[in-house]
């Protein structure tokens, strides 16, 4: 378990102790049919409660509940409730045997974690805008899967911040690196990568600041973890 930022926690299932997840969350998890889903749900909840324990520093979390919103426009977005009242904003993500969460007292936040893996050309052309594809192709082929995964996490993090998830087209979301061209290597693992992005909806354009990190897990797999907050 580690904290890439004070309001972000990333956790590996290896060695995770689910007994610190509140009983009602464990009961909810037991209703999932598939073990992998039950574990990902529990790991996400464990991440949230560990992060809140640190933020609330010793205060009781007995009354804290995480509810996946059933409102049509934010279907599935997690909400944090204390004594039935929403207090603060959270976002949860899982990938393989890892999970991460982010918390913000005042503003919605979105987080996404993805393992670097091969994604074929049809994925790239379906998901990315022409200028993003151009940027991806400016990298040596051996690095392209990393930048594709990074950009993908950025798009998902923004969609989650808005509570829309991928009910919106990924091409209405644009991603752009701030600063110099990226240099991916094990030396740059965990270094913050600054990204700007926007989501175009019919009436409005929402602008975001994002912070990403390249992560290596215990098995040596590479992931990207990206957190999005809207610019106000
Ligand atoms: C949100 C979404 C992009 C996540 O995709 P993913 O990469 O497979 O999964 P991740 O592990 O990164 O994230 C899953 C978490 O996202 C959160 N989430 C789900 N829907 C969300 C939404 N609309 N906004 C923000 N967060 C959401 C949940 O906390 C979920 O974890 P949990 O179920 O354990 O609580 C995807 O589930 C989605 O698009 N959902 C919405 C679909 C939708 O609205 N459809 C409308 C037509 S029915």
Task: Describe this protein's structure.
The chain has 232 residues and is of the alpha+beta class. The chain has a single domain, classed as Ribosomal Protein L22, Chain A (Alpha-Beta Complex), CATH 3.90.470. Helices cover 28% and strands 34% of the residues. It contains 5 helices and 11 strands, in the order E-E-H-H-E-E-E-E-E-H-H-H-E-E-E-E. A 6-stranded antiparallel beta sheet has the order 1-2-6-5-4-3, covered by helices on one side. A 5-stranded antiparallel beta sheet has the order 7-11-10-9-8, with helices on one face. A hairpin with a 4-residue loop joins strand 9 and strand 10 (205-216). Coenzyme A is lined by residues 41, 44, 68, 74-78, 91-94, 112, 156, 159-160, 163-167.
Quick summary:
The protein is α+β, with helices and mostly antiparallel strands and 232 residues long. It has helices at residues 23-30, 35-56, 121-127, 130-137, 141-161; strands at residues 2-5, 8-12, 64-68, 78-82, 85-95, 98-104, 109-115, 173-177, 193-200, 205-216, 222-230.
Count of discrete domains: 1
Main sheet record: 6 strands, antiparallel
Strand residue percentage: 25-35%
Low-pLDDT parts are none
Oligomer: single chain
- With helices defined by DSSP (H or I, 4 residues minimum), what is the helix count? 5
H/E order of the elements?
EEHHEEEEEHHHEEEE
CATH third-tier fold name = Ribosomal Protein L22, Chain A
Anisotropy-based shape: globular
- Classify the helix fraction into a percent range: 25-40%
Q: What structural class should be given to the helix and strand makeup?
A: alpha+beta
Quickly name the level 1 CATH class. Alpha Beta
Distance between the termini: 31 Å
Number of strands: 11
Ligands in the model, by name, code or SMILES, are: coenzyme A
**What is the assigned CATH homologous superfamily?**
4'-phosphopantetheinyl transferase domain
CATH architecture identity: Alpha-Beta Complex
CA radius of gyration is 17 Å
Write out the strand line-up for the largest beta sheet, numbering strands in chain order: 1-2-6-5-4-3
Mean pLDDT: 92
């Amino acid at each position: 378990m580690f904290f890439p930022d004070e309001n972000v926690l990333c956790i590996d299932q290896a060695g995770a102790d689910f007994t610190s997840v509140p009983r009602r969350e464990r009961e909810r998890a037991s209703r999932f049919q598939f073990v992998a889903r039950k574990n990902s749900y529990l790991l996400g909840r464990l991440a949230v409660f560990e992060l809140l324990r640190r933020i609330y520093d010793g205060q009781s979390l007995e009354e804290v509940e995480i509810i996946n919103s059933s409102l049509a426009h934010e279907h599935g977005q997690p909400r944090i409730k204390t004594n039935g009242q929403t207090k603060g904003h959270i976002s949860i993500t899982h990938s393989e045997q890892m999970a991460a969460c982010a918390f913000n007292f005042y503003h919605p936040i979105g987080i996404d974690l993805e393992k670097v893996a091969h994604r074929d050309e049809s994925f790239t052309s379906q998901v990315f805008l022409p200028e993003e594809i151009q940027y991806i192709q400016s990298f040596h082929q051996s690095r392209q899967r990393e930048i594709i995964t990074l950009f993908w996490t950025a798009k998902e993090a923004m969609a989650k911040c808005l509570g829309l998830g991928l009910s919106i087209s990924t091409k209405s979301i644009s991603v752009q690196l701030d600063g110099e061209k990226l240099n991916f290597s094990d030396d740059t693992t965990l270094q913050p990568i600054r990204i700007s992005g926007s989501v175009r909806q019919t009436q409005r354009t929402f602008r975001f600041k994002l912070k990403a990190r390249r992560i290596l897990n215990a098995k040596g797999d590479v992931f990207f973890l990206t957190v999005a907050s809207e610019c106000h």
